[in-house]
């Protein structure tokens, strides 16, 4: 009596995918997702817009914090960064680490130009912009642009604390 070999599949016809097929599909989906994420540009224009928005929001927040806490703040610009300082007695000091007023670094290709009272202001050791406890702040215009872009942003503030951001053509 001859014995027949047992069937490979108990159910007869195949009903589903093998583990190898599933792993291959997951691998292909992963490769497509990676290639799409690498192809989507993190453009200079987008980074510049984010820097301008963040800075505008931080200045508006500092104005509100100054009123709420009855404290004076200052904004100090460096080469490619900015930071907020707090006035204590007769000197400026860093804001508390848990403060919402944290400075920030700008994109490495972002240039900035600060104009206060119609005069270009250079980097300094003390804040170039004062944010006072009564809601007033130093009127200024801050130009942000990125090398190679045809536009930039101007953030301006009035004495009364009104902060606005505008897109402007590059100079």
From TrEMBL:
Gene Ontology annotations of biological process type: protein secretion by the type II secretion system
Domain General secretion pathway GspH: 52-145
SUPFAM superfamilies to which the protein is assigned, alphabetical: Pili subunits
Subcellular location as annotated: Cell inner membrane
Keyword rRNA-binding: no
Domain of life, source organism: Bacteria
Keywords: Cell inner membrane, Cell membrane, Membrane, Methylation, Transmembrane, Transmembrane helix
Topology term for the membrane: Single-pass membrane protein
Residues that span the membrane, as ranges: 20-40
Matches recorded under InterPro entries: N_methyl_site, Pilin-like, T2SS_GspH, T2SS_protein-GspH, TypeII_GspH
One matching Pfam family: GspH
GO cellular component terms given for this protein: plasma membrane; type II protein secretion system complex
NCBIfam families: IV_pilin_GFxxxE (TIGR02532), typeII_sec_gspH (TIGR01708)
Family: Belongs to the GSP H family.
Name of the featured protein: Type II secretion system protein H
Origin species: Marinobacterium stanieri
